[in-house]
């Protein structure tokens, strides 16, 4: 395995085509979760169409409709908090993120009628991917048995929803903005239609990609703001400036408001710099890969090697990000803009396979945190009074439990 560290070396990774570097060979273990004919198990033409439709479904036109849905879910969720209390913010935000994701991705009918079942099945799928799964994805162990059973049940569940929707007719379908409907309408260039199994696989893949990333990123951000009261108050003042309403209240969030939250956006970007959920990205060399280092030396990574980049290492290089272990959102604001050098900052990857859902993720995260921070003042209450360290034993790296904060409703 060859690691490429630094923007110059990493550019060879991000700029490479599928002919040069392949994903299937290193991420094939996810076929057990996503299913046949989906993402890493699909042929290039099918995959390109699947990714194209996913990208279109996550563009600003649809994102406008998602802010209202995310706001509704968050408002209902926060009613359970009351005036003040204590909570494990990682657990709370994980629960909230999957609620909002289900509403936007699966649709109102699934969220209202089947969420409990979907959530349980998703948890079984999630627990079925462990470090040993990377090497032996079909090893006969209990976590894999539960994973496989959960996927079969997920297909049955969504097949019923799909069948019911198709019986409703075209007019009803055109009024839906969720991504389930987008996937249902996929037709391949050879004239074949997408199967229920493939639709389910794409939904699972999208939920996997978004749930961990968003819940972990929102948790880290809340923890850093809970510790740094001065920064938290700056974020709150921004919220009042953006959402100020009559008689000192706050008006209902809309998509345009979310786009004006520059400081909150920079807090999220700083979180992703310090704690990208995926600590490394891998590819298999399908042919020799020529790499040039910062010192202008040329190296050849031979065909058959695994090549990797590590955002968590690269984004803490001190010559790119001074004082890299400090949580400093202002590093993204003018005139500093430390993230500007190409591929210096790449928490969502880059090039051909940059994350398609990053726009949706930022809209979701800004909406959720805007509502939480507008309503409550957070105070860090971990046992040692510090932000927890990363849990590098997890497949997707988040804070080590407990992630305790106290909250008090703002006047």
Question: How does this model look, in words?
Answer:
The protein has 411 residues and is an alpha+beta fold. It has one domain: Orthogonal Bundle (Cytochrome p450). Helix content is 52%, strand content 9%. The protein has helices spanning 7-15, 24-27, 31-34, 44-57, 60-78, 89-105, 108-113, 115-127, 131-135, 142-168, 170-174, 179-184, 196-227, 229-243, 255-258, 262-274, 311-314, 358-375; strands at 2-4, 21-22, 84-88, 281-285, 289-292, 298-301, 306-309, 376-380, 404-409. The chain has a four-stranded mixed sheet with strand order 1-7-4-2. The protein has a three-stranded antiparallel sheet with strand order 3-9-8. Strands 5-6 form a two-stranded antiparallel ribbon. Helix 6 (89-105) packs antiparallel against helix 13, helix 8 packs antiparallel against helix 10 and helix 13 packs across helix 18. The longest helix has 32 residues, at 196-227. It starts with a strand and ends with a strand.
Radius of gyration: 22 Å
The total tally of domains equals 1
**Based on helices, strands and strand pairing, what is the structural class?**
alpha+beta
- End-to-end CA span: 55 Å
Strand content: 5-15%
Q: Helix tally?
A: 18
Mean pLDDT: 89
What is the element string, with H for helices and E for strands? EHEHHHHEHHHHHHHHHHHEEEEHHEE
Low-pLDDT residue intervals, each spanning 5 or more residues: none
> What helical percentage do the residues reach?
40-55%
Shape label: globular
Total strand segments: 9
Question: Can you tell me the CATH topology?
Answer: Cytochrome p450
